[in-house]
Amino acid sequence: MSGILYVTGTPIGNLEDITLRQLRILEEVDFIAAEDTRVTRKLLTHFELKTPLVSYHDHSGIAAAQAIADRIAAGENCAIVTDAGMPCISDPGEDLVRICRERGISVQAVPGPSAVVTALAVSGGSTAQFTFYGFLPVDKKPRRAMLTELAVQTHTAILYEAPHKLCRTIADLQAACGGARMVAFCRELTKLHEEVRRMTLDEAAAYYEANAPRGEFVLVLEGASPVQSEFTAADAVKIAKTYLEQGMSATAAAKLAAKETGCTKNEIYRLLHEEENG
To answer: Which residue of 98, 123, 182, 260 is 20 to 30 Å from 160, comparing CA positions?
Structure first.
């Protein structure tokens, strides 16, 4: 009978954030797949756990994931953990989860803290909608593409960044988004020296030039201001009518007109319906 892969969260800083269920799973499984066995060993030692560890990180490759899946398929239970927070988020664990699911192996969540949501909650920015981007790409072309997307994204964006790359990232965001864009710089979350600094990119550039960044950062970037449409709702309805004359349904016509004008599909559809009914 196949075992179970437990996707297990661990504290992002403060060890008091570990849950009773996490401790039970980490003790009961046959082995733990850890991003850095040295980091996880410290956690286990703190809680007097002696579960065997295997290394599974960015450079392990698919063969290592297959080997872990083989052990689970043979009946062993495994907990996958990252150095901090929930595994499989900007993390190689996603490959192992995919392989296990493809092989019909049970995958269960043992949830814990996430730096993404924790930073968003204390950022002081809008939390209604957000997109998590992980780390900005290093290579120029994909990095430029992501920065271009961030420049026009109208809802909150969340990024990770290492301290030695932070100043370059700030400069790139300044160039793409403008120096007035607000960002919350979150570091040492849940730890003794937790710090959240909310400021413009221009202010951040000056601050971190004078104060060397330390610790891993989560950046919560405010969205761009929505671009005002040059079209009125009446203009959008006229465009939708031309699509109706071509034989399209009202729904399809409203959708295309919305794409062209920036007006909402529902508003266009409502006005079309009102005109049709006099």
So the answer is: 98
Of 120, 153, 144, 121, nearest to 219 by C-alpha is 120
What DSSP letter does each residue of 140-159 carry, written as one string? HHHHHHHHHHHHH--SEEEE
Distance, in Å, from the CA atom of 38 to the CA atom of 57, rounded to the nearest integer, reads 12
- 258 and 236 in contact (C-beta within 8 Å)? yes
**Percent of the residues in the chain that have a pLDDT greater than 90, as a whole number:** 75
Rounded distance, CA 265 to CA 278, Å?
20
**Has residue 92 got a pLDDT over 80?**
no
8 A C-beta contact, residue 133 and residue 150: yes
Distance CA 71, CA 52 (A): 13
Token pair of 242 as six digits: 């031309």
87: number of Cβ within 10 Å: 28
Q: For residue 34, what are the contacts with CB-CB under 8 A and spacing of at least 6?
A: 40, 53, 54, 55, 56, 80, 81
Look at residues 51, 8, 44, 1 and name the one whose alpha carbon lies nearest to residue 29: 51
Scan for tokens 């864009």, then name that residue.
181
Q: 158: closest CA among 132, 125, 176?
A: 132
CA 156, 111, 101, 65 dihedral sign is positive
**Mean pLDDT of the 125-135 span:** 94
Backbone angles phi, psi at 201, to 5 degrees: -65, -35
Q: What is the mean pLDDT of the chain?
A: 93
Provide the residue count of the chain.
278
Phi, psi (5° rounding) for residue 78? -135, 140
For 258, counting Cβ atoms within 10 Å of its Cβ (0-12 exposed, 13-18 middle, 19+ buried), the class is buried
